[in-house]
């Protein structure tokens, strides 16, 4: 059976869902928030392409098949993969590269979480980073509107 463009996009979105560790209810809520629909089958090819782009921005579709460990290891107080994906996705939306070794992101971590390098972040620290990035993003959006 030949795969159409729409089927390939659905497959990419499902890969992103799996890599982010999203349960079905979380995935469907995300899908509904971005398209107004709860199933990929109901989405147009343009909507599916936008969803795939969003997952790329979150880092879920980078390096297909590669399993990378989180920058700080995987101890009990270390940030989860989902937290890293969310934080780096927010960093990218704020205009940074979205990489944990980005000098601007390192500086942001020093100011907000008081750590010398993002690899030393704890779960609380990365939560503070995500809150700071969300506020920064809101600030930039409000500034654009004025």
Molecular structure report:
This protein is mainly α and 146 residues long. It has 2 domains: 5-57, no CATH class; 81-145. The protein is built from 6 helices and no strands. The protein has helices at 5-20, 24-35, 45-57, 81-93, 103-113, 123-145. Helix 1 (5-20) runs parallel beside helix 3 (45-57). The model has no long low-confidence stretch (mean pLDDT 86). InterPro entries: Phage_Mu_Gp16. This is Regulatory protein GemA. Residues 62-82 are annotated as: Disordered. Pfam families: GemA.
Brief write-up:
The protein is mainly α. The protein is 60% helix and 0% strand.
In whole angstroms, how far apart are the ends?
A: 52 Å
Q: Report the portion of residues in β strands.
A: under 5%
Instruction: Give the radius of gyration.
Output: 17 Å
Mean pLDDT: 86
How many structural domains are formed by the residues?
2
What is the SS-derived class?
A: mainly alpha
Q: How many strands? A: 0
The helical percent reads 55-70%
Per DSSP, the total helix count is 6
Largest sheet: none
**Shape annotation:** globular
Q: Which ranges are low-confidence, i.e. pLDDT below 50, for 5 or more consecutive residues? A: none
Q: Secondary-structure element sequence?
A: HHHHHH
Pfam family, one: GemA
Region (Disordered): 62-82
Protein name: Regulatory protein GemA
């Amino acid at each position: 059976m030949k795969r159409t463009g729409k089927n390939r996009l659905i497959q990419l979105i499902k890969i992103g869902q799996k890599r982010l560790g999203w349960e079905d209810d979380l995935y469907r809520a995300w899908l509904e928030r971005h398209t107004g629909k709860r199933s990929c089958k109901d989405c147009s090819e343009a909507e599916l392409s936008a969803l795939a782009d969003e997952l790329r921005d979150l880092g879920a579709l980078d390096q297909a098949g590669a399993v990378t460990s989180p920058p700080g290891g995987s101890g009990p107080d270390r940030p989860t993969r989902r937290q890293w994906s969310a934080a780096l996705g927010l960093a990218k939306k704020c205009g940074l590269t979205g990489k944990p070794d980005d000098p601007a992101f390192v500086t942001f971590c020093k100011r907000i979480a008081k750590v010398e390098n993002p690899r030393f972040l704890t779960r609380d620290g990365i939560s503070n980073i995500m809150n700071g990035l969300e506020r920064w993003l809101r600030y930039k959006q409000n500034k654009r509107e004025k």
